[in-house]
Design goal:
transferase; alpha+beta; five-stranded mixed beta sheet; about 35% helix; 2 domains; binds ligand LJ64HWYM; amino-acid biosynthesis; Ribosomal Protein S5, domain 2; Alpha-Beta Plaits; nucleotide-binding; binds adenosine-5'-diphosphate; eight-stranded antiparallel beta sheet
Length: about 325
Amino acid sequence: MAVTAYAPASTGNVSLGFDILGLALAPIDGSLLGDRVSVVEETQAFSLENSGRFAHKLPEDPTQNIVYDCFLGFKAEMAELGIDVQPVKMKLEKNLPIGSGLGSSASSIVAALAALNGFYGNPLNSELLLRLMGKLEGQISGSIHYDNVAPCFLGGLQLMLESETQISLSLPTFDDWYWVICYSGASVSTAAAREILPAQYDKATTIEFGRQLAVFVDALHRGDRALAASMMKDVVAEPYRKSLLNNFDASRAYSLQQGALAFGISGSGPTVFAAVDNLNAANDIKSWLEQNYIQNENGFAHVCKVDTRGTQVLEDE
Ligand SMILES: Nc1ncnc2c1ncn2[C@@H]1O[C@H](COP(=O)(O)OP(=O)(O)O)[C@@H](O)[C@H]1O
Ligand SMILES: N[C@@H](CCOP(=O)(O)O)C(=O)O
């Protein structure tokens, strides 16, 4: 029976946890912000059919699509278990823009592997799947980072542990926070946005990074909203990446003036996010960003909450 998986958008870094903190997102109006991948049936030769708002931005050759690499990666893992996997017919509904900072490649990877695993009766456990997801994400961006694939797969706010037995830890979140996200419509390559970062950081930056992350995690556990929000400042990527983004400083200034608790770059951009604890302010910031941050017809904005469910796998009727 055909199996479909939905994998939500995610914000990597969340300003203060470069490569090790990520958040899954769900628009509060119920709209779909994530890719869907189906495994339809076994066939003679691998095939992939693309649809969705951003399908036209995908490589035309199906073997250049990361979904194909997921199939190969899954097949190799199954071979380790002594199981031979035949070519399959797959479908990708590409709802997330590529190079947007919303974990677009992660969403396709996670949905593809979750659907493949579901189709074959869940032979691979979650930990193994997550490692494979990270490996495939690393293939695209140049180095392995789990801050998109982990929240996309598991839901919620995830902190990377990356021990031999566990990749990710789930952190508590504040139910009353909204996450306004706005994608400008421009494309920023994650690999390129990683290359512009320094290879080394100075002592002061390193201490600041450690202080912020430690205090933030403690504040989350104690439910101290104000302290948690005050730690959300990016000392690692934003100083170098914000020059790639039009109108970033004005967008932050407006959001903070409207009462946003924090404002930053989602992943490697150009999407920006504002954390807000008031729905009226969240809607107001969303409208302003729509008017002032979006650059073309591909852009959009949503008021979101944390997606606590992560990837959803369904057997088709
Ligand atoms: N299913 C897919 N979804 C997203 N990107 C894909 C997919 N298949 C192949 N790609 C390629 O992977 C790269 C993704 O770029 P990247 O900047 O990492 O995107 P994102 O930050 O949105 O994940 C692009 O070159 C894109 O053409
Ligand atoms: N930690 C990564 C996150 C990249 O996210 P994406 O959504 O832009 O792929 C980074 O900041 O490079």
